[in-house]
Amino acid sequence: MMDLSITTRDLNLWYAKFQALRQVSVEIKHGLITSLIGPSGCGKTTLLRCFNRVNERYGYVTTTGEIRILGKNIYDPDVSLVELRKSVGMVFQRPNPLPLSVYENVVFGLRIHGERHELERARLDEAVEKALSEVGLWDDLKDRLDTKASTLQLEQQQKLCIARLLPLKPEVILLDEPCSALDVDGTRAIEELLFSLKGRYTMLIVTHNMAQARRASDECLYMLLGEIVEHRRTEDLFLHPQDPRTAEYIEGRYG
Amino acid sequence: MTLHGRWEVGGGSRRGAAWSVLFTGATGLATALILAMLAVILVNVAWHGWPALSWRFVTAGTEADMFEVGKAGVFPMIFGTTARVILMTLFVIPVGVTTAIYLHEYAHTTSVLTRVIRTAVANLAGVPSIVFGLFGLGFFIHFLGDRLDLVLHPDNPKPIWGKPALLWASLTLAVMTLPVVIVATEEALRGLSPGLREASLALGATKLQTIWQIVLPNALPGILTGGILAVSRAAGEVAPLLFTGAAYYMAELPRSLTDQFMDLGYHVFVLSTQSPNLEQTRPILYGTVLVLLLLTFALNATAILVRARMRRRQRAAG
Ligand SMILES: Nc1ncnc2c1ncn2[C@@H]1O[C@H](COP(=O)(O)OP(=O)(O)OP(=O)(O)O)[C@@H](O)[C@H]1O
Ligand SMILES: [Mg+2]
User: Fold this and answer.
1) Which of B45, B144, B272, B274 is 20 to 30 Å from the Cα of B122, by its Cα?
2) B204 and B289 share a domain?
3) Nearest residue of A to residue B192 by CA position?
């Protein structure tokens, strides 16, 4: 099944005694944009954060079940968190550029992981130009690579947060409501960017905005109370929901 | 006060207004009182101390008689006080910062060990400084020092480590100011947004890399604030030095960490209690106090300047 990027089987997750994910089994296809919708508190962020194992930051989290990314169970003991996070990048709700320059934000991953010979100035320069070009920031920022990233506009910051993943050649990019801090133009710009990255990366995007899910994603997952209710092509899910709970949600009956 | 409160002249609000005026007046008075006291002290010291200040007074040691005007000099004391403050800073910052990092980044807030450390830190801050002096004597000089002598110089009858010294006095001060640095650093760590740490971790950085490259550089101004507070607290302290390193008189400057030193604060104490003729000694006494105050300000100002520069550099370079 080489066209699957992420598969989970019977994934359960508890925050201390509270169960936030229940028997989640999904298959996320390679190279597509899959959106994750559902009412507030249903576990979208939690599920997303399982895929790069940042949930484990909290000592009180317990997980059972299996998550395979590129065929490898990421909970296997021989999995290196560092390698996992290189291939599974994450973009957060609030743009969170590192408190460094634009340039250093883009090469942070390389500096952290790179062998010495990869850290030659020329190579880094090349990586910066490539990554910033991919997200459409190069022309705007090529003369301001030394400015502090936090002084950029929010939209640029969020693009930068995507750009800094790219030098690590990720397989999957997880995005948790990446547009919720942006205005209409910023939102459109990010959506266009995601569209342009399609095919090369598997993208999983959490959104509260159903119009965005419809516009921007190929497949759509509907979650409720920690369970996956429905997972189909976006068009089908919105036009012909199979589960009555999905129908209710997309007609706008829950928050 | 809202606009309504200001313009209405109903019965209830008039009473409120009266209270408000009274309260404002009381707080203003208290502030004025404190400023007045500070001014009296500073003016008094400056007024009486100024005449004693001369190039000779601050750049030379004492010849023959430390109680006699014209023959006294406080350079050895300036040297000693500066040295012990700088040494203390070198000890307290690494230990304090490491502890704060452990508490904030590694320890579980609910664990017994964390609670014990926090309680200890809080209580340490309330211990009178003379007790730190006794602790320094008991732990550093007699426990550590005596053992070092035994191991390093078994044949030497005279103690080298097991006696009051610049090293032990500085360490004692470091223990005393530890809570200040820990609390300030923790405050700084808490102030950083959690998104910052997650951004770094999600890029595959280890916890150590995250702390070293992202968390610490951003907490630096806060850490320096802790350092500044520690310097302020330690610079004028005398009690912790009494048994641990300050000397009544020394003909020469300390040459190594195991030498004793003369100290401005302790010298003020010596001048005011040991002088055969206090009237005559008074100008030197005031002069020494003035130098102590100026030195404390100078040490603080240096630390504040360093912090300001660091902030500016952070803002510029990112
Ligand atoms: N760190 C945590 N500790 C304890 N409980 C948590 C934690 N994070 C989330 N939860 C709980 O887990 C459930 C799922 O949270 P999650 O953040 O995954 O929801 P979400 O679908 O992303 O919601 P939203 O749309 O509001 O972002 C919620 O009930 C939440 O209260
Ligand atoms: Mg969420």
Assistant:
1) B144
2) yes
3) A99
With CA atoms as reference, report the closest residue to B189 among B266, B101, B96. B101
Beta bridge partners of A24: A11
pLDDT digits (tens, 9 = 90+) for B102-130: 999 888 877 888 889 889 988 988 899 99
Q: Give the 3-state secondary structure of B95-153.
A: HHHHHHHHHHHHCCCCCHHHHHHHHHHHHHCCCCHHHHHHHHHHHHHHHHHHHHHHHHC
Compute the distance from residue A183 Cα to the ligand 2 centre, in Å: 19
Given a cut of 60, whether residue A155 has pLDDT beyond it is: yes
**Residues B200-248 pLDDT 10s:** 999 999 999 999 999 998 898 889 889 988 998 898 899 999 999 998 8
What pLDDT shows up at residue B182?
A: 94
| Closest CA in chain A for residue B197 | A98
**Same structural domain, B74 and B144:** yes
Residue B44 sits in the same domain as residue B130: no
Q: Which amino acid is at B96?
A: G
pLDDT band at B318 (very low <50, low <70, confident <90, very high): very low
Together in a domain, B20 and B71: no
**What whole-number distance in Å separates Cα of residue A255 and Cα of residue A39?**
6
> Are residue B207 and residue B87 in the same domain, yes or no?
yes
CA–centroid distance, A21 to ligand 1, in Å, is: 10
Q: Whose CA is nearest to atom 26 of ligand 1?
A: A40
ipTM above 0.95, yes or no: no
Query: CB contact, 8 Å: A100 with chain B?
Result: yes
Residue A36 in contact with residue A229, Cβ under 8 Å?
no
Residues B97 and B21 in one domain: no
Helix (H, G, I), strand (E, B) or coil at A202: strand
Residues B97 and B226 in one domain: yes
Q: Which residues in B lie closer than 8 A to residue A85 (C-beta atoms)?
A: 201-204
Domain that holds residue B25: 1-52
B98 and B37 in a single domain? The answer is no
Please tell me the pTM assigned to this model: 0.82
Going by C-alpha positions, the residue among A203, A126, A121 that lies closest to residue A162 is A203
Task: Give the full edge-to-edge strand order of the sheet including A227-233.
Answer: A88-91, A172-176, A202-206, A33-37, A219-224, A227-233
Residue A37 contacts residue A45 (beta carbons within 8 Å): no
A89 at the B interface (CB within 8 A)?
A: yes
B73 band by pLDDT with thresholds 50, 70 and 90: confident
List domains and CATH numbers for chain A. 4-93+170-250 (3.40.50.300)
